[in-house]
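Incident log, structure service

09:12 report received: a user says their structure output differs between two submissions of the same chain.
09:20 pulled the input from the user's history:
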Amino acid sequence: MQNPPLTFAVPKGRILDEALPLMARAGLVPEAGFHDKADRRLAFATADGAARIIRVRAFDVATFVAHGAAQAGIVGADVVEEFDYSDLYAPVDLSIGYCRLSVAEPAAGAASIDGSTHVRVATKYPNLTRRHFEAKGVQAECVKLNGAMEIAPELGLAGRIVDLVSSGQTLKDNGLVETARIMEITARLIVNRAALKTDPRVGALVERFRELAA
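09:34 re-ran on a clean worker, output below:
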């Protein structure tokens, strides 16, 4: 009985643009429809039919792989650390998608928004944010947002934000300054631990990416 195609999850956006050449060198070349902006499918066959590629939100990449719906994928280290799934293994740093997860606040400061015993932070990374502030002995009240973090301080929703920073221009344009770096981020190859143990194709894929990233 022939094995079903491997399912490989990739994130929409900037990391994907950098990952596609690396994927091609590893033998994961998506069918033509993958590049057609009018094609609204989420799953695409590879050119050789040996795998299928699903294109989802970055946070969902980790969830699909951790629960075994996809055997492998590519996602930023920020997502791996935020979810900390026990069934997720990130064996290869792909050295692409460089950015950082940082704390930022208005240039005038954030004290007017914070409570007397805690700070209020707008972020889509509540776990990483709480851990960062706890390490400093500070309680963080996290306001979960999925985007538009930079406007939160101006509107009084939170005194500061925790978000991804690349050039820092978006922060500057919104009157914010970077006050701390939580972690440096690159994209990682992630695999489902059970699939790695039971499907030799997953192990072979890890080795191909490891050679490419060396």
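09:41 both user submissions now match this output. Likely a transient worker issue. Closing.
09:42 reviewer note: The helical segments are 14-25, 58-66, 77-83, 126-134, 169-173, 193-198, 200-213. The radius of gyration is 19 Å.
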